[in-house]
Amino acid sequence: MPVVVVESPAKARTIEKYLGQGYRVLASFGHVRDLPEKDGSVNPDDGFAMKWAVQAKAQPRIKAIADALKKDNELILATDPDREGEAISWHVRELLSRRKGLRIDGDAKRVVFNAITRQAIQEAMRQPRTIDMELVDAYLARRALDYLVGYTLSPVLWRKLPGARSAGRVQSVCVRLIVEREAEIEAFKPKEYWTVIALLETPRSEGFQAQLTILDGRKLQKHDLATKEKADRAVEAIKAASFVVSGLDSKPTRRNPPPPFVTATLQQDASVKLKFNPRRTMRVAQALYEAGLITYMRTDGSDMAPEAVNATREEIARRFGSDYLPKSRRFYRKKAKNAQEAHECIRPTDMSLDGGRVKLGESDQRALYELIWKRALASQMESARFLQTTCDLLSRDERTGLRARGRVIQFDGFLKLFGDSRRPDQAKAKGRLDETAELPQLKPGELATLVEVSPHQHFTQPPPRYTEASLVKRMVELGIGRPSTYSSIVATIQDRGYVASEKGSLVPKGTGWMLTAFLKTYFETYVGYEFTAGLEEDLDDVSGGRKKRIEVLEKFWEGFAASVADTQGLRIGDVLDKLSDILVPQVIPDSNSLENFRSCPDCGKGKLILRTGRGSGAFFGCSTYPECQFRLFLDDRKSGGSAELPAIRRIGTDPESSLDVTARTGRYGPYLQLGENEGTKEKPKRVSIPKGIDPETVTLEAALTMLALPREIGTHPDDGQSIEAGIGRYGPYLKHGRKYASVPDPKEILSIGMNRAVELLAQNPGGRNRRTTRSEARQLGEHPAEGGAVRLMNGRYGPYVNWKKVNASIPKGADPASVSLEQAVELIEAKRGAGK
Q1: Contact assessment for residue 808 and residue 800, using Cβ atoms and an 8 Å cutoff
Q2: Residues with Cβ within 8 Å of residue 410, at least 6 apart in sequence
Q3: Is 147 a catalytic residue?
Q4: In whole numbers, what is the pLDDT of the chain averaged over residues?
Q5: What is the mean pLDDT of the segment spanning 755-779?
Q6: CA–CA dist 825, 575 (Å, integer)
Q7: Cα→Cα distances 411→24, 374, 421, 434, 560, Å
Q8: What is the DSSP string of 457-513?
Q9: Are 636 and 668 in contact (CB under 8 A)?
């Protein structure tokens, strides 16, 4: 029997049911091979040759397909009707054609269908074609572009931008969108303005609201009432006037139904109405498609097949009557940039099945199906019709004017199914007229009585942060990405730590700010919106046979490779300095008003430098560190320097300095502070409160003892070196030369004596000096990005540089005595990148 190959087992079961026992339907479980994750899988010097590797999990599936073909060598490829589906079919055919002893009857047959229904599948089987190599070429071009960007640009980031991970071609542009929106929000300065709303009554005691529009004989603009004083004066003017209806204007308006869903609008609507993120939406939609309930869910075409339109119109007439059915069908054309419209819209395969009748076990599937069904049905319904009325009222001296608006629904049309979703938001807005409310009967020349009047304060609002759904909408508008990539792109930028989701909004992390600044500085062309959209057009031209794959790749690679080469000589310190110039104005309000640009707002002497820490993320630190410990974190804008932190309680007063002792909560937990920040540039003394000590129970005596740490206990009886007790990042410790030992009981650090200290040090004989085969040649300085000493070391196997736990060998032939700090950091970052 012929062998049919699809992607998933669920799809296989549904299709096998429709085809009957004369076919064997097997699943490939998605892609069966991919580019190996190593450099060289795409070779620009060899015509962009691509080396593919069969995925381990795909081996048994390919074998199962090959075994089935030994009994009947007719192969039918029925994967999804898009580039990815065409690519999966091509990969399967390529692998099978290379298997020894396996012959396929003629060329493999390719069948496509937009819906998994009996009629659609049987029709597709009657019209097979060959694999569309133009679609495959477009897939290969996209895959090569993404690979070349990822595996060429990512090592640059590892070496030149500490803390950054990999960078994708489209993902980087999406991060830029989110960062630039956040920069707009940071720079936004709210502007105060007021509105004045009056409640009036007609002579028939019917109430309605009107807003002040004319004051002192002049028409008001939106922000003219800028202060409470002006608003109060306007209130008094209204109270002193009597108002007459001076004009009535009623005109019919209509509201047309929205088009049926495409991938992007489905993700947006599901986000707003069902609170689904794009990944969840596409996962549920995939299940509905494979169950044969909806058409293919990755599409940017919004039109509907003629037979589906007829079925939809019949259902409208049956459910709501002929009044809700337009005289002719509605046509929709996608307006988004680069729309391919290769498939029809997302719709139910059977319009008679609403959410209540369809057989679904999962609530998510039922909710999403209902959303798709309503949207498809409404798209062919009659428009809603309204009578919109505007009423103007003037004082008798014509120096003060009010305006009321309202509307009456004359025919609900598609709102019969949807409801008027606009009304609640407008009605609840404080200090705003509800323009959807119905006005009472009003007549020109009649008097309206003032009942009450109230001013309402407002502030202009910054642009909203992107949500996952609104980001997808913006990507569609710019022509970035394709339906099959939207949800994975949004997920990837969060997984890589460039962006975080906070209360449904996408907020850039410190590494996201740095990535965008770096790419806009050194790879501006390749994170440009127009350039990225232009590449999408080129890929569409490849799929349409208007351009050749190699032509598109060569054009891109020539400029991109040159830009990568230009970064080879960059020093990390120079990169961070450049990024500091860009980011300081964005993340520190009014930084340009500082006497010296980038000067430390804490000490005023040092310069702000961008740094990264593995635990704390990206931050601005003072160049005079450790004298000034100011830190401003990009992730949460919390200062780790002298910025005031909330006090837990006041413990008492230090008798020697007369300064207050307080217990506070900081970024890294509770701590003690002696004195305040105000009135002095000297940093107050601080010490962490170790775990195991309740901040609420710390006495003044204990607090002063901890603030006095580190303290000298005495000299070690064996070698005469000093023993110190202190509290560090990892808790209480003892220090003896270069040897450290932890103190198990935090309370013990307050009173530990010599005998106990020697005992604990003896229990940890290795300490930090256990490696006796190395010695320090010289200190090279502080790591410019993340702090910490960089040292030149003499090791058992030769000289190397050390920073924290990273050791990097000095290349053979190099003179260790001439190694500079910059060269050492380059070696360290290369070592870290290789480790990743």
Answers
A1: yes
A2: 252, 385, 386, 387
A3: no
A4: 85
A5: 66
A6: 13
A7: 54, 19, 16, 20, 58
A8: EEE--PPPPPBHHHHHHHHHHHT-S-TTTHHHHHHHHHHTTSEEEETTEEEE-HHHH
A9: no
How far apart are alpha carbons 144 and 16 in whole angstroms?
A: 35
Q: Rounded distance, CA 599 to CA 612, Å?
A: 19
Strands 647-653 and 660-666: antiparallel
Catalytic residue among 296, 526, 733, 740: 296
CA 636 – CA 619 distance, rounded (Å): 10
pLDDT beyond 50 at 299: yes
pLDDT of residue 642: 36
Our CA dihedral for 212, 215, 221, 225, rounded to 10 degrees, sits at -80
Q: What is the spatial distance between Cα 86 and Cα 185, in angstroms, rounded to a whole number?
A: 43
DSSP per residue, 207-262: EEEEEEEEETTEEPPTTS--SHHHHHHHHHHHHT--EEEEEEEEEEEEEPPPPPB-
Least confident of 309-313, 401-405, 442-446, 747-751: 747-751
**Encoded tokens for 34:** 């991919």
**Beta pairing, strands 447-459 & 192-201:** antiparallel
User: What mean pLDDT do residues 354-379 have?
Assistant: 90
The helix (H) or strand (E) run that includes residue 86 is helix 83-97
Residue 429: what pLDDT? 54
| % pLDDT > 70, the chain | 90
Lowest mean pLDDT among 358-362, 434-438, 666-670: 666-670
The predicted structure's pLDDT at residue 129: 93
> What pLDDT is recorded for position 52?
93
**Tokens at residue 254, please?**
């209509």
Enumerate the β-bridge partners of residue 803. 790, 806
What whole-number distance in Å separates Cα of residue 543 and Cα of residue 88? 16
